[in-house]
Amino acid sequence: MKHLIMITLLALSGTLQAGELSLQLSGKSHHIKPSEEYNEENYGAGITYQVKNQYLAAGWYKNSLNRTTKYLMVGWRKDLIDGDGVFAPGIMIGGLTGYTDETATVVIPTLTFGYQPVKINLLILPAINGFEGVVFAQLEVTLGGKP
User: Fold this and answer.
1) Is 12 helix (H, G, I), strand (E, B) or coil?
2) Which helix (H) or strand (E) holds 70?
């Protein structure tokens, strides 16, 4: 995890300027064709700091296995709508805990939509490498600043 933090800080070092700070509230997931019963109420909280199209996100939530997951992600999203509307496909990469004994490195496609200051983040994990597909939803509320 230390290496992941160092890489994230290095990646953002050129963009650490006045940005947008948001609160993330994690909520629900939907497992696609689950082979067992999972926790679909994944409550938790985190923060996002966005400058232009890049962002850093950190927080925690109760995962599908009823364990606490902590995450640190760096991401990119491109808003395709001008004004207060938000429709932004993106991708994030980072680490999360709570699924195995080790920190897992993940790459997650995202879709953010809504109207400022309130957005919905959908994180879409496809079924690959023996893992079941899942869609995870977060509420993101802008606290201040401009991306």
Assistant:
1) helix
2) strand 68-77
Q: Can you give 78-114 as a three-state secondary structure string?
A: CCCCCCCEEEEEEEEEEEECCCCCCCEEEEEEEEEEE
pTM of the model: 0.80
Q: How far apart are CA 141 and CA 120, in angstroms?
A: 9
Structure tokens at 109: 């496609």
pLDDT by 10s per residue, the chain, length 147:
555 555 555 555 554 457 899 999 998 998 887 778 888 889 999 999 999 899 999 999 998 888 999 999 999 999 898 788 899 999 999 998 988 888 888 899 999 999 989 999 999 887 766 667 889 999 999 998 776
Q: By the 8 A CB rule, do 29 and 64 touch? A: yes
For CA atoms 12, 15, 21, 22, give the dihedral sign: negative
Q: How far is CA 97 from CA 10, 49, 50, in A?
A: 22, 21, 23
